[in-house]
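User: Just a sanity check before I run the rest of the batch. Below are the structure tokens for the first item. I only need the designed sequence back.
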């Protein structure tokens, strides 16, 4: 008897970035197929296109896409609306226009009428007014009145990422379907597998600790909307460091394994730190070989921004190391400058977390 091939599961990826969520879903099940992705940043859109197909990506604001195109019918809508306005980092701004982009996400769901939708955002999202606005849209009078949703704060380390990154994940379902629930954690204390550590992630890739290269490979670029965007570069080609002053190197040299800025001699401290003898121990901190990393953010290449120093080398993470901690495969293609690629890596959904959600929803659809 001939084996029946299950149909593809069609997805629409909004605020798609470099494609971390789509890549995770694809890793979770080969049935997932992105039919459209919308991304405003040209370099990030070029990265998405390099991995998921040029024809898939709309490069521009979601408002323009909604005005210009018919929203396709898909099984799942994915997306992580920008969250800087209610992030716990830095100064919060409740009126940040980026906080209102969830409305375009909800409008897309209304038009596409998918079986499920997935929203990924910072843990603080559930305490924001925008979260309550989104919830009201699933009430009897809202634009998503035929949908319900539930949410959890999930830690990517609990799903096999070598990174402790807590994010709000919302899963919505059409009311003619059962609530799908959430994937069960697979890694950590009391579970089948231990958390993946920084050392294990780097060792698995055969990563060399000593890095001397500063610049990306030259003479590579693609024309994206009339702009030359550098690349593509395989993730494994991004094992590049940056220029450090002699003073910076002296500071790094005084920080032992698992150490931080409090290990730097007083005379080497910048003036602004000499008066601050308390506060975060993550600043100028070294990652731990035997633990998952801290959250990889967009400025992981700056040691003064957090615990981003290599466990033993006197330098910050390379782009390749950061991409590895996010779970990107070695052959994933990135487009853009070093700063643009760093932003794409830091903003991405960790691949193992996306894969766990994808596998779970694929089983629910079956």
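Assistant: Here's the designed sequence for the first item:
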């Amino acid at each position: 008897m001939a084996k029946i091939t299950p149909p593809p599961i069609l997805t629409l990826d909004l605020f798609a970035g470099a494609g971390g969520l789509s890549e995770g879903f694809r890793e979770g099940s080969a049935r997932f197929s992105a039919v459209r992705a919308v991304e405003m940043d040209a370099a990030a859109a070029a990265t998405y296109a390099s991995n998921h197909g040029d024809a898939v990506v709309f490069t521009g604001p979601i408002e323009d896409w909604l005005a210009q195109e018919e929203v396709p019918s898909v099984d799942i809508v994915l997306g992580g609306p920008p969250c800087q306005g209610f992030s716990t980092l830095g100064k919060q701004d409740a009126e940040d226009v980026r906080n209102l982009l969830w409305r375009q996400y909800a409008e897309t769901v209304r038009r596409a009428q998918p079986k499920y939708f997935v929203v990924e955002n910072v843990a603080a999202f559930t305490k924001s007014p925008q979260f309550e606005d989104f919830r009201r849209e699933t009430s009897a009078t809202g634009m998503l009145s035929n949908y319900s949703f539930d949410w959890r704060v999930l830690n990517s380390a609990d799903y096999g990422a070598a990174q402790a990154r807590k994010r709000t994940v919302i899963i919505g379902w059409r009311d003619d379907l059962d609530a799908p629930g959430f994937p069960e954690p697979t890694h950590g204390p009391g579970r089948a597998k231990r958390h993946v550590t920084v050392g294990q992630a780097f060792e698995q890739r055969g990563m060399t600790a000593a890095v001397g290269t500063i610049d990306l490979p030259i003479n590579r670029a693609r024309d994206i909307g009339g702009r030359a965007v550098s690349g593509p570069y395989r993730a494994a080609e991004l094992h590049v460091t940056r220029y450090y002053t002699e003073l910076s190197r002296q500071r790094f040299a005084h920080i032992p394994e698992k150490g931080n800025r409090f290990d730097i001699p007083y005379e080497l401290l910048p003036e602004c730190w000499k008066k601050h003898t308390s506060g975060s121990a993550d600043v100028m901190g070294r990652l731990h070989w035997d633990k998952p990393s801290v959250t990889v953010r967009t400025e992981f290449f700056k040691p003064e921004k957090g615990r981003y120093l290599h466990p033993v080398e006197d330098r910050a993470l390379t782009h390749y190391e950061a991409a590895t901690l996010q779970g990107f495969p070695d052959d994933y293609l990135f487009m853009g400058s070093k700063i643009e690629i760093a932003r794409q890596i830091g903003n991405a959904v960790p691949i193992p977390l996306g894969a766990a959600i994808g596998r779970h929803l694929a089983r629910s659809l079956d």
